[in-house]
C-alpha cells in the first residue's frame, strides 16, 4: 500500500516508544522502574470522576457537543485564563480541544502556509517539530547560546523572512526550567518587533516549585498578548491525561478557523471529558495543590541525590513540570559508552531504569528523568543508577 511522503517524514514519538519497551520488560517479569512517562502517577481526583459518572447517567455524554466545546466550559476556561493572566477573554476566544496536543496541531494547520518557518527552541517537546511538518511548515531549531533557555538574540539568529511563529514552553518539558518575567519580556518584545506569532505552551503552568513565580507571555504587555496564542490543558495539573482535555485561547477569528479544522477532524472533545473538565475547574482545587506539593518534595529529594552521581551535571535546579534533565555525557564516558543514547540503553538493560535519551528533545548529551513516580520508586531508581555508574567507572 502506498505511504504518503508526509507520513514517511514523520518520526514516531520517542518517549512513547521507550515507555512501551520498559512496559514490555515489566510484562516479562523484569523489575523495571519506568521514569520515561510524562504523566502524573495520581488518580484523577474523585470529585472529577464523580462528575463524569453523573454526566453519563444524566444522558449528557451521549451526543456530539458544539465543535469548540460546551458553552459553560468555554466560559469557564475564559474566566480561569482571565484570572490567571489578567486578560479580558470571552468564550469566543476559547477552543476546547482533544488534548493540548490537538490544540497545537490545529494552530499549526490554521497558521502556516507551505514553507513557513517556525522557530523551536532546544530542548523541545517531541511533537512540536513533527506537527509543523504535518502542516507543511518548516521547524527551525535554535540552541540556547547559554544554559537551556533561549534569548531574543538566539531567536534573532534563527529568524529569516519566512519566519512566521515561534513556540515557547515554560515550565519546560524536558528541562523543568521556568522563564523569568524579564526573559519573557525580552522574547515577547522581539516577537512584536518582528511580527512573529508566539505559540505559548503553558501546559505545566500550575506546576512550579520552591517559591518559583510562574509568568506567562500572555500576562505581559497588550502588544505581546496580541501576538500570542495560548495553549494549555488539564492533563498534567489535574492528573487527567486520559481524558484529553486541552484548549487554545486566541483572537476570536483565529478560534473560528480552529473550529473549522476540528469540525472536520475530531468533531469535539469527548462529551464526558468536558463535564469532567467543568468540575475540575469549578470544584475544589485542593487536590491540585496536594499533587503539586508531592512533586515538589520528590524534586527536592531526588535532585540532591542525582547530583551526587559521578558525571551527572545540571545546568540549574528545575523549577517546574515534573522532569529532571541532567547532562550525563561525562557519566556515559565514565562507564565506557560511546554516547548518551547507549548509556540510556545500558541503564534500561543493566540497571532496569528507563529514562529518555536527550536526543528525543534535540540535546543528545542529556537524559530526561520523570519524577511523576512514587518517592520509593524514585529513590530506588537513583540508587540503581548510582551503583551502575560507580561500579563501572
Ligand atoms: N505540551 C507539552 C510541553 C507537553 O509535555 C504535553 C504532553 O506531554 C502537551 C503539550 C500535550 O498534552 P495533552 O495533549 O495531554 O494536553
From TrEMBL:
| CDD domains recorded | AAT_like
Q: Which Pfam families match?
A: Aminotran_1_2
GO terms for MF? pyridoxal phosphate binding; transaminase activity
- Keyword annotations of the record: Aminotransferase, Pyridoxal phosphate, Transferase
What EC number(s) does the entry state? Answer: 2.6.1.-
Q: Which cofactor does it need?
A: pyridoxal 5'-phosphate
Q: Which residues form the Aminotransferase class I/classII large domain?
A: 31-385
The record's top EC class is: transferase
Tell me which PROSITE patterns the record gives: AA_TRANSFER_CLASS_1
Q: Does the keyword Transferase apply?
A: yes
Superkingdom per UniProt: Bacteria
Alphabetical list of InterPro entries matching this protein: Aminotransferase_I/II_large (IPR004839), AspAT/PAT-like (IPR050596), NHTrfase_class1_PyrdxlP-BS (IPR004838), PyrdxlP-dep_Trfase (IPR015424), PyrdxlP-dep_Trfase_major (IPR015421), PyrdxlP-dep_Trfase_small (IPR015422)
Q: Which GO terms describe its biological process?
A: amino acid metabolic process
Recorded hits in SUPFAM superfamilies, A to Z, give: PLP-dependent transferases (SSF53383)
PANTHER family according to UniProt: ASPARTATE AMINOTRANSFERASE (PTHR46383:SF1)
Task: Name the family.
Answer: Belongs to the class-I pyridoxal-phosphate-dependent aminotransferase family.
Could you identify this protein by its name? Aminotransferase
**Source species of the chain:** Ligilactobacillus salivarius (strain UCC118)
Amino acid at each position: 500500500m502506498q505511504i504518503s511522503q508526509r507520513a514517511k517524514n514523520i518520526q514516531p514519538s520517542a518517549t512513547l516508544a521507550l515507555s512501551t519497551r520498559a512496559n514490555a520488560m515489566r510484562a516479562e517479569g523484569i523489575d523495571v522502574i519506568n521514569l520515561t512517562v510524562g504523566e502524573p502517577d495520581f488518580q484523577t481526583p474523585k470529585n472529577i470522576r464523580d462528575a463524569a459518572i453523573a454526566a453519563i447517567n444524566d444522558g449528557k455524554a451521549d451526543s456530539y457537543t458544539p465543535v469548540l466545546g460546551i458553552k459553560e466550559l468555554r466560559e469557564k476556561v475564559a474566566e480561569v485564563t482571565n484570572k490567571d493572566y489578567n486578560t479580558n477573554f470571552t468564550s469566543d476566544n476559547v477552543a476546547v480541544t482533544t488534548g493540548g496536543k490537538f490544540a497545537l496541531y490545529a494552530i499549526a494547520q490554521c497558521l502556516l502556509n507551505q514553507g513557513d518557518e517556525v522557530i523551536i527552541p532546544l530542548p523541545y517537546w517531541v511533537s512540536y517539530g513533527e506537527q509543523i511538518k504535518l502542516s507543511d511548515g518548516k521547524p527551525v531549531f535554535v540552541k540556547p547560546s547559554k544554559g537551556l533557555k533561549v534569548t531574543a538574540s538566539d531567536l534573532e539568529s534563527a529568524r529569516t523572512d519566512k519566519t512566521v511563529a515561534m513556540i515557547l514552553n515554560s515550565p519546560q518539558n524536558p528541562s523543568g526550567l521556568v522563564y523569568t518575567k524579564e526573559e519573557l519580556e525580552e522574547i515577547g518584545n522581539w516577537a512584536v518587533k518582528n511580527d512573529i506569532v508566539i505559540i505559548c505552551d503553558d501546559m505545566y503552568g500550575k506546576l512550579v516549585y520552591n517559591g518559583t513565580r510562574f509568568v506567562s507571555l500572555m500576562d505581559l504587555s497588550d502588544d505581546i498578548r496580541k501576538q500570542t496564542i495560548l495553549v494549555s490543558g488539564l492533563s498534567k495539573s489535574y492528573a487527567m491525561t486520559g481524558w484529553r482535555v486541552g484548549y487554545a485561547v486566541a483572537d476570536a477569528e483565529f478560534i473560528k478557523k480552529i473550529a473549522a479544522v476540528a469540525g472536520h477532524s475530531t468533531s469535539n472533545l469527548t462529551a464526558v471529558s468536558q463535564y469532567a473538565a467543568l468540575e475540575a475547574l469549578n470544584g475544589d482545587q485542593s487536590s491540585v495543590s496536594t499533587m503539586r506539593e508531592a512533586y515538589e518534595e520528590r524534586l527536592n529529594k531526588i535532585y540532591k541525590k542525582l547530583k551526587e552521581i559521578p558525571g551527572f551535571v545540571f545546568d540549574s535546579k528545575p523549577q517546574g513540570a515534573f522532569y529532571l534533565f541532567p547532562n550525563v555525557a561525562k557519566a556515559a564516558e565514565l562507564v565506557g559508552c560511546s554516547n548518551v543514547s547507549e548509556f540510556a540503553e545500558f541503564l534500561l538493560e543493566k540497571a532496569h531504569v528507563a529514562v529518555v535519551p536527550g536526543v528525543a528533545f534535540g540535546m543528545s548529551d542529556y537524559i530526561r528523568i520523570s519524577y511523576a513516580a512514587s518517592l520509593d520508586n524514585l529513590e530506588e531508581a537513583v540508587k540503581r543508577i548510582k551503583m551502575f555508574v560507580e561500579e563501572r567507572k
